[in-house]
């Protein structure tokens, strides 16, 4: 599912971020740990094909990244990668159902309202399909974003700080729902976090893999391509 060898990335003339090798099987779980700036978002962006590595080899969901460009890479990402960003980026102008439908546009597939309804039902928010994002609580919005991430049955689900700003009960619920959603569609799961509650909760996961970036001497800049992944409306495509 994910195989890396000597993976590295350099921002401009800055020091190069070096990442330990990973071999994550299909259906496996990877805990990506590190302080802010350690490179968690950079690693996720590399795996999602949003940035091109400056060193090493990267294989994800059956392809070697770096060999595709443009529309081919976009189509692969839309089919194979589901992403739950820290900033949910639900379009305020669209209903919940229409926000999910953007995933079909990104993948070049026709809209499937039955599948949208099923995805919302699986995360417990079927009744919210006609609401706008401003009518949702924080927890409801996160569930909607998760439904969007798993709608197309991705092979890989990436979650960036999924428990940030949540209290203990909400964090536990969010993490359990994330694991259940990944298992339902048979996806491999990568969770990037610096939250010790997540680390403790995942300690009992069979064959859990860990990638700790705290030892990385280089510092990644703030910001990430990831927060825009799969959220473009048709008018936004140039």
Automatic annotation (TrEMBL):
<keyword id="KW-0547">Nucleotide-binding</keyword>
<dbReference type="InterPro" id="IPR017871">
    <property type="entry name" value="ABC_transporter-like_CS"/>
</dbReference>
<dbReference type="InterPro" id="IPR027417">
    <property type="entry name" value="P-loop_NTPase"/>
</dbReference>
<protein>
    <submittedName>
        <fullName>Putative ABC transport system ATP-binding protein</fullName>
    </submittedName>
</protein>
<dbReference type="GO" id="GO:0005524">
    <property type="term" value="F:ATP binding"/>
</dbReference>
<dbReference type="Pfam" id="PF00005">
    <property type="entry name" value="ABC_tran"/>
</dbReference>
<dbReference type="InterPro" id="IPR003593">
    <property type="entry name" value="AAA+_ATPase"/>
</dbReference>
<keyword id="KW-0472">Membrane</keyword>
<dbReference type="InterPro" id="IPR015854">
    <property type="entry name" value="ABC_transpr_LolD-like"/>
</dbReference>
<keyword id="KW-0067">ATP-binding</keyword>
<dbReference type="GO" id="GO:0005886">
    <property type="term" value="C:plasma membrane"/>
</dbReference>
<dbReference type="GO" id="GO:0016887">
    <property type="term" value="F:ATP hydrolysis activity"/>
</dbReference>
<feature type="domain" description="ABC transporter">
    <location>
        <begin position="2"/>
        <end position="238"/>
    </location>
</feature>
<dbReference type="InterPro" id="IPR003439">
    <property type="entry name" value="ABC_transporter-like_ATP-bd"/>
</dbReference>
<keyword id="KW-1003">Cell membrane</keyword>
<dbReference type="GO" id="GO:0022857">
    <property type="term" value="F:transmembrane transporter activity"/>
</dbReference>
<feature type="region of interest" description="Disordered">
    <location>
        <begin position="215"/>
        <end position="238"/>
    </location>
</feature>
């Amino acid at each position: 599912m994910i195989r890396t060898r000597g993976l590295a990335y350099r921002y401009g003339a800055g020091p190069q971020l070096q990442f330990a090798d990973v071999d994550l099987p299909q259906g496996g779980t990877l805990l990506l740990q590190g302080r802010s700036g350690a490179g968690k978002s950079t690693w996720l962006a590399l795996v999602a094909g949003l940035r091109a590595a400056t060193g090493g080899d990267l294989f994800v969901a059956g392809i070697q990244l770096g060999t595709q460009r443009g529309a081919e890479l976009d189509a692969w990402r839309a089919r194979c990668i589901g992403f739950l960003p820290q900033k949910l980026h639900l379009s305020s102008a669209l209903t919940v159902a229409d926000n999910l439908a953007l995933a079909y546009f990104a993948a070049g597939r026709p809209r499937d309202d039955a599948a949208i309804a099923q995805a919302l039902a699986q995360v417990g928010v079927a009744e919210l399909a006609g609401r706008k994002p401003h009518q949702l609580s924080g927890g409801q919005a996160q569930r909607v974003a998760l439904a969007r991430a798993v709608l197309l049955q991705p092979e890989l689900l990436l979650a960036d700080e999924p428990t940030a700003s949540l209290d203990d009960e909400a964090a536990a619920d969010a993490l359990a729902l994330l694991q259940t959603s990944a298992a339902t569609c048979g996806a491999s799961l990568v969770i990037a976090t610096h939250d010790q509650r997540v680390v403790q909760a995942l300690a009992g996961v069979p064959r859990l893999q860990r990638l700790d970036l705290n030892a990385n001497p280089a510092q990644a800049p703030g910001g990430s391509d990831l927060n825009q992944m799969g959220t473009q409306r048709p008018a936004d495509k140039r």
